[in-house]
From TrEMBL:
<keyword id="KW-0548">Nucleotidyltransferase</keyword>
<dbReference type="GO" id="GO:0006261">
    <property type="term" value="P:DNA-templated DNA replication"/>
</dbReference>
<dbReference type="InterPro" id="IPR050238">
    <property type="entry name" value="DNA_Rep/Repair_Clamp_Loader"/>
</dbReference>
<dbReference type="Pfam" id="PF13177">
    <property type="entry name" value="DNA_pol3_delta2"/>
</dbReference>
<dbReference type="GO" id="GO:0003887">
    <property type="term" value="F:DNA-directed DNA polymerase activity"/>
</dbReference>
<dbReference type="InterPro" id="IPR004622">
    <property type="entry name" value="DNA_pol_HolB"/>
</dbReference>
<dbReference type="InterPro" id="IPR027417">
    <property type="entry name" value="P-loop_NTPase"/>
</dbReference>
<protein>
    <submittedName>
        <fullName>DNA polymerase III subunit delta</fullName>
        <ecNumber>2.7.7.7</ecNumber>
    </submittedName>
</protein>
<keyword id="KW-0808">Transferase</keyword>
<dbReference type="GO" id="GO:0008408">
    <property type="term" value="F:3'-5' exonuclease activity"/>
</dbReference>
Length: 342
């Protein structure tokens, strides 16, 4: 069964900010929610998820005994899908949040005063508000309505106008712990080895989200292992493999960087197996331990280091914007050369 956006959000907050979300659902249950919060922390630490799940808790038709939203009722689903008429999420329009966006929000909320409906607005990247937008917003939060709650989210606390800071309750988001990241990835159905690989590539949850979208990491891991298999056999089929198997998975600059990183990691594994006697559990590509070991035995330390150097040089070429397929093909040829020259 496909998980809904609402269930995704619940899994996200429980993995990333379990203490904070517990606090907020209790506050909602007690009817103590403030008029305006300022969520401050690093990118991808679950600020938006905490704001949305807290909002779900506020509207949910069947909350749990502890105050958590059910994640299945019509209110929960509409909030999670950004389709709830009383919940507004504002994001930068281009580089900034503009005064027109805040004006539209104000019109929406002046209705609240008349209708008496509970309303919530969430402003993501609040630090990108133009001064005009920020001043316009200030008027809203200066005259709080009992039925309105605002969540302002920022990764740049110091870029928020002091007048806004002083009228909001600051919530500093803690750094996500390694175990929490592991739990988060496990909830997205990554295997143990995939989790280890993912965390060697990045610790940023925004980037981790990119890695796991559409099972990209699982697919790429398999292809990199395939590429390495041809290389280790000194088989020229490694060369066309770049075009047929790697390139279809590579799009933006991020996926290019990760591809090069994964190639580095696989040769680092070879190095670590040979010189540091690492076990499969300690490697990024532990699933192919036997192949790594046989390759390590077959290569000299000079060959291994020279392949890692070639890959690192690729990372530099990438910066000057040479076609990426060409880069990977040259790199593949170099690796094949290194393995042939015994
Ligand atoms: Zn619900």
């Amino acid at each position: 069964m496909e998980t809904s956006a609402a269930q995704h959000l619940l899994a996200d907050v429980n993995a990333k900010q379990p203490d904070l979300i517990q606090h907020f659902v209790q506050v909602v249950q007690a009817g103590d929610l403030s008029h305006a919060y300022l969520f401050s922390g690093s990118a991808g630490d679950g600020k938006l998820a905490v704001a949305k799940v807290t909002t779900m808790a506020l509207f949910c038709l069947h909350p749990t005994k502890e105050g958590f939203p059910c994640g299945a009722c019509n209110e929960c689903l509409r909030i999670a899908n950004d389709e709830h008429p009383d919940v507004l999420v504002i994001e930068p329009d281009g580089q900034s949040i503009k005064i027109e966006q805040v004006r539209a929000l104000k019109r929406e909320f002046s209705k609240s005063a008349v209708e008496g409906n509970q309303k919530v607005f969430i402003i993501d990247a609040a630090d990108t508000m133009t001064v005009g937008a920020a001043n316009s917003l200030l008027k809203v939060i200066e005259e709080p309505l009992a039925t309105v709650t605002a969540f302002l989210l920022t990764t740049n606390y110091h870029h928020i106008l002091p007048t806004i800071r002083s009228r909001t309750q600051l919530v500093e988001f803690p750094q996500i712990k390694q175990e929490a990241l592991q739990r988060y990835l496990a909830e997205h159905n990554l295997s143990k080895t995939e989790i280890k690989l993912a965390l060697q590539i990045t610790k940023s949850t925004t980037e981790l989200d990119q890695l796991i979208a559409d099972q990209w990491l699982s697919k790429m891991k398999q292809q990199i292992e395939g590429w390495f298999t041809w290389i280790s056999k000194d088989d020229v089929r490694a060369f066309p493999f770049v075009q047929t198997n790697l390139m279809p998975l590579i799009g933006d600059r991020f996926s290019q960087n990760v591809t090069v990183t994964m190639m580095c990691l696989i040769f680092q594994d070879v190095f670590n197996v040979k010189f540091r006697e690492r076990t499969p559990e300690q490697l990024a590509f532990g699933d192919i331990y036997d192949l790594l070991k046989s390759t390590a035995n077959q290569l000299s330390d000079y060959q291994i280091v020279s392949m890692i150097n070639d890959i690192l040089a690729t990372a530099q070429l990438q910066r000057v914007n040479v076609g990426f397929q060409g880069i990977l093909e040259v790199l593949t040829l170099k690796c094949l050369q290194s393995i042939t020259s015994k």
